[in-house]
Amino acid sequence: MNLVKVIVLILMSSFVNINNGYRILGIFPSRPRSHHIMFDAICKELANRGHHVDVMTMYPNKNPPKNYNVIANFEKYDESVVNKFNISFAMKIDGIVLRRISEYHGNRICEYLGLPEIQKIVKNPPTNPAYDLVIVESFGANCFIGIGHVLKVPVIMASSTLDLPWLDNALGQPANTAFFPSFFTINIHPMSFFTRLFNTLNYHINLIGYQQLTKAIQNSQMKKYLDDNIPPLEELEKNVVLALVNSFHSLNGIRPITPSIIEVGGLHVNSNFVPLPKVSHKNTKVFITHGGLMGTQEALTYGIPLIGIPLFGDQPANIIYYSKLNMSLHLDINNLTEDTISHALNEILNNPKYKNAAVFQSARFLDRPMSPIDTAIYWTEYAIRNGQNSLRSPVVDMSWWQVNLLDVYLFIIILFLIILFTIIFLFNMAWRIVLSTRKHDKND
Ligand SMILES: *[C@@H]1O[C@H](CO)[C@@H](O)[C@H](O)[C@H]1NC(C)=O
Ligand SMILES: *[C@@H]1O[C@H](CO)[C@@H](O)[C@H](O)[C@H]1NC(C)=O
Ligand SMILES: *[C@@H]1O[C@H](CO)[C@@H](O)[C@H](O)[C@H]1NC(C)=O
């Protein structure tokens, strides 16, 4: 009798395990290698927790866990950039970051929608079991959100940088440009009037620029390869449940964030994924870096001060953040001499301020209710459990002038002016009456 009970329990628990595992499709076709450190960590951990993860990627995991399958490998369609990035090239693309994200890492990549590997999933989605969720990178190729629409499952996004303006726009995240640096700028609080002006213009110019460069093309790619009746991207983007974003308030600053932006900064560091093993070595005194978010977050985790020599993209902004926290020095790539380098090294090695700040900031960065990888897994499963509109902000369904209360402020100003002019008019009238009665009195 007892034995039967035990067997039934074991059988039930194994069923429970099967039912707890979701089937998740991760779509990460983009070329920058460092972004994949984050996506790989998420996909690997989802598989380790019993989910069935199918991945479309350019950099397949070399040591995949059970339940992790590469169903599309874009390696053969695109040239890897690993070890081919030289300084002159890196500095050249600094001026054209938006165009590069939109076109090279966006529209160009969206042509993959026509590849047989993707068409197979779109035309004949697996049913045994069916997908429960799609994860798409937030960078330049939002067209892949369309796959979630075709599969009729919720979509979440993952951003290996801070949330970009078009991700904010999709989720109803306020821009906060009064004190929060816009897209890859080094404008940091406190900002002067003109810095706030440029910061705000930069945000909106980049948002509109991205839409101009991508929307029409990616909409037609989705129509061509996915579904002729697919709604436009601006509608599909609003249905994205949430985004896992590689930021954290202790590093990037305090700002109001909408519940669908999930900060998981440093997620890759504590998830058995250590791309830079030497950073964590007990004798490491300083990390000299180009200022990529992945490597610097690793140094932050281990309390290692930085010397930053940023090149392009978010790197200058990243180094500014660390410098503001007193754990980094900034070297200009155009001014690298024996003198500047040795001065920076001597300063970091001999002034305890930097190491102390790095250790202090490390503790703050790690002080969270849940580790970033646990946070990412929790919210991924949340999106599946609660579905498409569970975190939808009312902001995405309103016009920008309503959200910013322009109509309300305009009404108040006009009302105030009407009252003001009425009072002036009445005083004027009263004054004239007084004057004319005085005249009258005199004449009498
Ligand atoms: C740098 O890379 C670019 C693009 O890959 C290439 O055209 C150029 O020749 C390279 N320059 C040097 C100095 O290696
Ligand atoms: C950094 O150092 C400066 C002066 O050494 C100090 O005024 C400032 O408060 C420090 N910033 C932080 C975030 O600790
Ligand atoms: C280069 O660095 C030195 C030392 O920090 C500094 O005095 C000099 O003004 C810098 N030159 C330029 C062109 O930035």
TrEMBL record:
CDD domains: GT1_Gtf-like. The chain crosses the membrane at residues 408-431. One of its GO terms (molecular function) is UDP-glycosyltransferase activity. Residues 1-21 form the signal peptide. It holds the Pfam family UDPGT. InterPro entries: UDP-glycosyltransferase, UDP_glucos_trans. Keywords: Glycosyltransferase, Membrane, Signal, Transferase, Transmembrane, Transmembrane helix. Belongs to the UDP-glycosyltransferase family. This is UDP-glucuronosyltransferase.
